[in-house]
Design brief:
By secondary structure, the protein is mainly alpha-helical. The chain is 84% helix and 0% strand. The protein has 7 helices and no strands. The longest helix has 30 residues.
Length: 204
């Protein structure tokens, strides 16, 4: 027997999703943030595989892997801290488009085996995410009524948390075919985000 409470929860999530979907600007930002955040879930294991492929000294690999985590974490923290001060005249959509281009650069950096370049671009990407995330949350709080706010934020957080585990599975799985193919897919990933933003905002 289907529990009525479970049906109610499902309906609430669905209704909250459609509330977001009906606001094209917010939905585009949510879509972008989800997949940009998810990108790091796929980048980390691929970065590790790339270090192995390039025969990086075994003593250096842990340092490089730790550096990736450090630059991503610091980038997000600094971006959050300066969110209200930097790029104030740039919309979230503009910052997200720049982030999409950075993903393409990361793919190119991996193709040319330039790990330092990948680390630098990753830090900028994380910084951009750190800047946009608080602004997006502020928009959600200001746009929706108190009655719907709790469910909306829960739905948003669920979508943001869902993508990293998915990309952490998908991209390493593709690497079983070819690691070079994953690098190309990173470039495609960035291009896909650019195209989807235009599609979502087309009839705004």
């Amino acid at each position: 027997m289907i529990n009525r409470e479970n049906i109610s929860i499902f309906e609430t999530i669905r209704n909250n999703f459609f509330r977001l979907f009906n606001n094209k600007e917010l939905f585009d930002e949510l879509f972008q943030l989800s997949l940009l955040n998810g990108f790091f879930g796929g980048l980390t294991p691929i970065f590790v595989l790339s270090l192995q492929k390039n025969n990086i000294n075994s003593a250096t690999r842990p340092i490089m892997i730790a550096l990736l985590s450090v630059v991503i974490t610091l980038g997000m923290i600094i971006g959050n801290f300066y969110s209200s001060r930097l790029l104030r005249n740039r919309s979230n959509a503009t910052v997200n488009k720049f982030s999409n281009i950075l993903i393409i650069f990361i793919g190119i950096g991996l193709i040319f085996n330039n790990m330092i370049f990948v680390l630098c671009i990753s830090s900028i990407l994380a910084f951009n995410l750190g800047i946009v995330s608080p602004r997006f949350t502020s928009k959600i709080i200001n746009f929706y009524s108190i009655e719907n706010l709790g469910g909306i934020i829960t739905t948003v957080n669920s979508l943001l948390l869902l993508t990293p585990p998915i990309t952490a599975i998908v991209f390493p799985s593709i690497s079983n075919v070819s690691l070079y193919l994953v690098y190309i897919m990173f470039i495609v990933y960035g291009l896909f985000l650019i195209v989807m933003s235009k599609v979502i905002l087309k009839d705004r």
